[in-house]
């Protein structure tokens, strides 16, 4: 018969094996925070898009290297993970795909908080605004030509057939409504520099204080500027049946496509953007002058806006995590 000492020797490898299995279990991710760039370090210097998120959630987290992702992933004990994905459609979406397919993470129930800075048309937004995307619309995936070569419906763009299912995505309206309910009263930071800059524009929306709002986020790898390009972006949004265009950015349509392919749904995606510039100059400056301003003539408000993004997004993140029993199986009905 085996004595207790022998049984203990047999049991030890089994216990160690069980512990190893537990340690290797994938991290169940409740909320994934994806930013596009960081200026320097993740903490202690000038903040880019990720630093405030890192300081709020990941200061005590160790980096997890993911093959194919632009930067390490950080996760805390509450099931919140985040990473810097890279700017533009290809860099950001390939990072998301690498993270989603990595066995270190269980993202079967994850909410995606895709965020960053953006531009906004002065007719609809202002510096420091934070907007939740109701639609993700790709600015490309069509035919575009020089205006002098002939206009179609007043525009030099028509969509190309075959992209109907990936050129625009309506993000879950109930989830967006929840986000507004939780965050629309969030006090936003502002700066004297931005306040002065706004007065160059005649639009009421451009001149007001920043707020939380909703609308279409237009994705394009081109930094388009000028009233003509802004009008075209609005034209594309309306052509696809989307809401008014409020933010120009470079990633969300591509990231949404990757999530849709891998997760089979887009119902847990939040697009959050903070406006740091107008998409056109004021009536007294040319587009080139707007793109290359004289020293001291920039919009200002970048520091405050990246703080606003994380503040607004953090409120929604915390709400989901705190009420996980309600949110785990999907977006609950709006109360």
Describe the structure.
There is one protein chain. The chain is of the alpha/beta class and 335 residues long. The protein has a domain of 214 residues: Rossmann fold (3-Layer(aba) Sandwich). Helix 4 crosses helix 10. The longest helix has 21 residues. It is globular and about 60 Å long. The termini are far apart.
List keywords for this structure.
globular, about 35% helix, alpha/beta, about 325 residues, 13 strands, Rossmann fold, two-stranded parallel sheet
Give a quick precis of the structure.
The protein has 335 residues and is an alpha/beta fold. It is 36% helix and 20% strand.
Total strands: 13
Beta-strand percent range: 15-25%
- Number of discrete helical segments: 11
Q: What is the averaged pLDDT score?
A: 93
Task: Using the 3D structure, state the CATH architecture of the domain at 114-327.
Answer: 3-Layer(aba) Sandwich
- Order of H and E elements: HEEHEEHEEEEEEHHHEHEHEHHH
Instruction: Tell me about the largest β-sheet.
Output: 9 strands, mixed
Name the shape in a single word. globular
What structural category do the secondary elements indicate? alpha/beta
Name the assembly state.
single chain
Low-confidence stretches: 4-22
Secondary structure topology:
Blueprint: H1 4-24, E1 27-28, E2 31-35, H2 51-58, E3 73-75, E4 80-84, H3 89-101, E5 105-106, E6 111-120, E7 130-138, E8 142-144, E9 157-159, E10 168-170, H4 173-183, H5 192-198, H6 204-207, E11 212-219, H7 227-239, E12 245-249, H8 252-263, E13 269-278, H9 287-291, H10 302-322, H11 324-327
């Amino acid at each position: 018969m085996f004595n207790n000492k022998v049984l203990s020797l047999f049991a030890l490898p089994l216990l160690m094996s069980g512990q190893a299995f537990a340690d290797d279990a994938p991290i169940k991710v409740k909320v994934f925070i994806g930013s596009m760039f960081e200026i320097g370090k993740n903490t202690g210097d000038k903040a880019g898009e990720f630093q405030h998120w890192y300081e709020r959630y990941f200061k005590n987290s160790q980096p997890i290297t993911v093959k194919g992702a632009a930067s390490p992933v950080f996760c805390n004990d509450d099931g919140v993970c985040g990473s810097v994905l890279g700017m533009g459609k290809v860099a950001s979406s390939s990072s998301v795909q690498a993270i989603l397919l990595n066995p270190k993470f269980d993202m079967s129930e994850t909410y995606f908080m895709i965020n960053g800075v953006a531009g906004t048309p002065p007719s609809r937004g202002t510096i420091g605004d934070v907007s939740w995307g109701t639609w993700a619309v790709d600015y490309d995936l069509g035919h575009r030509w020089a205006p002098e070569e002939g206009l179609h419906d007043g525009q030099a763009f028509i969509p190309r057939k075959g992209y109907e299912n990936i050129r625009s995505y309506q993000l879950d309206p109930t989830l967006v409504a929840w986000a507004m309910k939780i965050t629309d009263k969030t006090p936003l930071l502002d700066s004297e520099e931005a306040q002065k800059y706004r007065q160059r524009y005649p639009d009421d929306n451009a001149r007001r204080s920043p707020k939380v709002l909703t609308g279409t986020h237009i994705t394009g790898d081109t930094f388009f500027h000028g009233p003509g390009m802004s009008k075209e972006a609005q034209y594309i949004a309306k052509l696809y049946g989307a809401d008014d265009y409020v933010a120009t950015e470079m990633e969300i349509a591509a990231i949404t496509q990757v999530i849709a392919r891998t997760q089979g749904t887009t119902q847990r995606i939040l697009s959050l953007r903070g406006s740091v510039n107008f998409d056109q100059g004021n009536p007294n400056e040319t587009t080139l002058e707007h793109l290359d301003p004289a020293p001291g003539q920039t919009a200002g408000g970048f520091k405050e806006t990246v703080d606003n993004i994380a503040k607004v997004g953090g409120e929604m993140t915390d709400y989901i995590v705190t009420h996980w029993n309600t949110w785990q199986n999907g977006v609950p009905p709006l109360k």
